[in-house]
Write a structure and sequence with these properties.
Blueprint lengths: L8 E7 L8 E8 L7 E11 L1 H8 L15 E9 L11 E5 L10 E5 L3 E3 L6 H4 L3 H14 L7 E5 L4 H12 L3 E6 L2 H10 L3 E4 L5 H6 L3 E6 L2 H8 L3 E9 L11 H6 L2 E4 L7 H17 L6 E6 L3 H10 L6 E5 L3
Parallel strand pairs: 8-9, 8-11, 9-10, 11-12, 12-13, 14-15
Antiparallel strand pairs: 1-2, 3-4, 3-6, 3-15, 4-5, 5-7
Length: 330
């Protein structure tokens, strides 16, 4: 439920009914969110678009907001106001944010707990900052907290040209892994190579699996498990780990492929991270901004009135090529 504030209004994208993108409407008289004692109010410049945003808007997610709600979990902007107990920021700081809150970032203002706000610094733009949260936090949770990746291991990023995939390629290189990535277009393959993959393969070519089978992998990050999981189980080394980052439906597998290699399949849901895990992964990514390996690729920037088109494109466009973001500031 949208929280009311003392009279100040803002522009926001609002969803008043779950369903298709036509239910996303720009409204100009929404209340600016209140700021709790431990919260930060951010004047949003750019909002990030992630597949999970579309699942929530369709009403097809495990935890749904009360209606009406403002979509968007990631974004970047400038600190506008602080709760009484906030100590890490000051008004005017350039920040990015990533939150499981249902008071979203597709608005002029966004209020969220201090633990969900992070320094952006001057190295990256607001457009790049809006592509950090879910993509990089998920990549770290998958590779480090779930797969327990070690330097020298072979990793396959199956669907590497989207936001999470590119973040995973960059992180894997930083961790010292041997990185193979797949994509479905020439542009996507080039982007994955630029992000640091040692080898790239087009997963739309009929023979690509045979090429991958010649290598075998210690870790597979899977972005579309309903299509690829059965094949992933044939590509793992002994005690390999497939980490499921994304899926859009059911699938069928042969469990014998797990038994023969004593390999495993593990799901990732960023929202289940403990407070300690959240602190670890966010600190690592913020450190990565300073170190220079966090380099979000922005494929397209939309205006606020085009947010529904961004929601459509992130699911239906042929071949991911980095992050889609929406410019909120006027």
């Amino acid at each position: 439920m949208l929280r009311k504030s003392a009279g100040t209004m803002m522009k926001a994208v609002v969803v008043r009914k779950f369903g298709g993108v036509k239910n996303m409407k720009v409204e100009t008289d929404m209340p600016v969110p209140q700021v709790g004692d431990n919260e930060v109010l951010v004047r949003m410049h750019v909002s990030g678009i992630n597949p999970v945003d579309t699942y929530v808007r369709e009403g097809m997610y495990s935890v749904l907001p009360e209606l009406p709600y403002v979509p968007g979990k990631d974004g970047a902007g400038v600190v506008e106001a602080l709760g009484a107990k906030v100590t890490k920021f000051k008004v005017g700081d350039k920040v990015f944010c990533s939150s499981t809150s249902h008071n979203g970032t597709l608005a002029n203002f966004f209020s969220t707990p201090e633990t969900c706000v992070f320094p952006l610094g001057e190295r990256l733009s607001f457009e790049e900052g809006a592509g950090i949260g879910i993509p990089y936090f998920t990549a770290y949770r998958a590779l480090v907290q779930k797969a327990k990746a070690k330097a020298g291991e072979q990793v396959l990023v199956h669907g590497a040209s989207g936001g999470v995939g590119l973040a995973a390629v960059q992180l894997a290189r930083e961790l010292g892994l041997q990185v193979v990535g797949t994509a479905g277009t020439d542009e996507g393959l080039s982007l994955v190579k630029e992000a640091g993959a040692h080898e790239v393969f087009n997963h739309c070519e009929p023979e690509y699996l045979k090429k991958l089978e010649a290598q075998k992998f210690d870790i597979i990050l899977e972005m579309l498990a309903n299509v690829n999981l059965g094949n992933d189980l044939t590509l793992m080394n002994s005690r390999g780990r497939t980490i499921v980052v994304g899926s859009r439906g059911p699938t069928e597998i042969n469990p014998r492929n797990l038994m023969m290699t004593e390999s495993s399949v593990t799901g990732v849901a960023l929202g289940t991270a403990t407070a300690e895990e959240w602190a670890e992964l966010s600190e690592a990514v913020v450190a990565g901004i300073g170190a220079g390996w966090v380099k979000p690729a922005v494929h397209k920037v939309y205006d606020l009135g085009e947010a529904s088109q961004a929601h459509h494109d992130i699911i239906h466009s042929k071949g991911a090529r980095g992050n889609l973001v929406v410019r909120v500031a006027e």
